Each structure stands twice: as C-alpha cells, then as structure tokens.
Amino acid sequence: MATGTAITPGRLAAFAWHGVALVILTYALRKLPVHANISGFNIESQFGSHYQFLTVLGLWFGRLTTLFALSCDISPTSTGMHRFKTMLMALTMPAEVLISLLYWPILLFDPSLLIPPRKVLNPDNPAQLIMETVRLPLLDDLSFHAAPAIFLVLDYLIFEPPFPKDIHPAAVSALSTAAYGVWVEICASKNGNYPYPLLEILSNAQRWGLYAVCAVLFMGITTGVTQLHKAIDKVYKREWDQVAGLTGKGFVGAVDGKKNKSK
Fold it and tell me: Where are the transmembrane segments (predicted)?
C-alpha cells in the first residue's frame, strides 16, 4: 500500500474528529428553523433569511470545511481537494474564533444587542405589552457560538499542516470582513433593519469602524493560531506535507515527493 493511502491511527483519529464535528454543525444548522420566530417575527421571510447572520454563515462554511476535510481523509492524495480545504480553513477557522470572541462578551453585557427583544404580555397588566430579553437554549447556543471554533482550531492545530505562505492573513481578513459588511448593508437596505440590534444603534461610520476592527482581529487570530501551530511543531518535532498531513513518524501519513516542512 502506498504511504499516502495507508490507514494510520492518526488518519482514523482525524476522520472520527471530522465526523463528530460534522454531526454537531449539521445539528446547529437544522435548529435554525426552530428559532426563526425567536424575536416575534419570522426571520425566514426577510431578505437573506438566516444568512444575514455572521454566525449562520460561519456554520455553513464550517460544515463545508468539515465535509472537505472528511473527503481528504478518504482520499488523502488529492492535491486539489487538500488545497481547497486549506483555503476554506484559512477563512473559516479565524472567522469562527472571531464570532465566539465577539458573541460571548456581548451576550454577558447585554443580550438584546445580539437578539432583538420580543413583545410579550405584561403578567401584571395583560393589556400592556412589554419587551422581553431573548436567550437561546444553552445547547443550541453552544453549538452555534462555541463548538465550531473549538472544532476548527483543534483540527488545525492537530491534524492540519500550517497554512502555506501564499495565503496572506491580511488579504483574507480584509476581503472576508468587507464582503460581510457589504452583504449585511444590502440586507438592511431591503429589510429596513439590521440582523443584529448592535448594528442598529451605530452610525454608518461606526459600523464600518467596527468592521475594520473585526478585520484586524481576524488577522490577529490567524497569526496567533499559526504561531501556536509552529510552536507545537517545534516542541514535538513535527514535519508536514501539504497534501498528506503529518509526516516524520507517520502520524497522519505521507506521500511520495518533496515535503513542505514547517520551521
């Protein structure tokens, strides 16, 4: 059997990891219709539907990344598939970390900045409507805003080679945050409101300033996790092949040809 197609414990571990991640990300996406009316109006009737939300876009790209990772586990010598998976990982992993870093502090500070409050009858005065703060069930909240980042970061650190030099964090962060900024502005112009109440209270300049800050954070996350990857490689003396994954001791496997070693 060729080295690149050998079934190793590392490859089996990667397949199991990606399988569990796929199940959880699929669970999260399938829970979206359940919460379509969480704020008292049907988000699915709006332009962009659930995909106005950065969280949902992150889930969708996270599942796509995981599907390609599983495909690479099954077909480890497919250079094109590995290349596309690496590009997806460079986009999705820092985006999911950014989502988690933004979401949980804001949630603790004021949940109404993330999810619009809903109108409910005042129990003390049934003729009066009051605004009620909305919270997602904890399991769903974790599957939306924590699990994707955890799975993707650990996947990158344990099973993935370092990003190649032709993937530039500054370019990826600038393009992705600008794309979402334009998309959310289009959705708001058609729906008459922003998906996140936080964006409603900001001026145009403040919103684009927020997007710029997010771009810087995105780049910092990519750089930080990449440096952590290199530190782990150095400590454990790991060598990588961009197609087959970890080489040296054959933890994930190797293919014939020149190895791209992390320094």
Answer: 12-30, 50-74, 86-106, 208-228
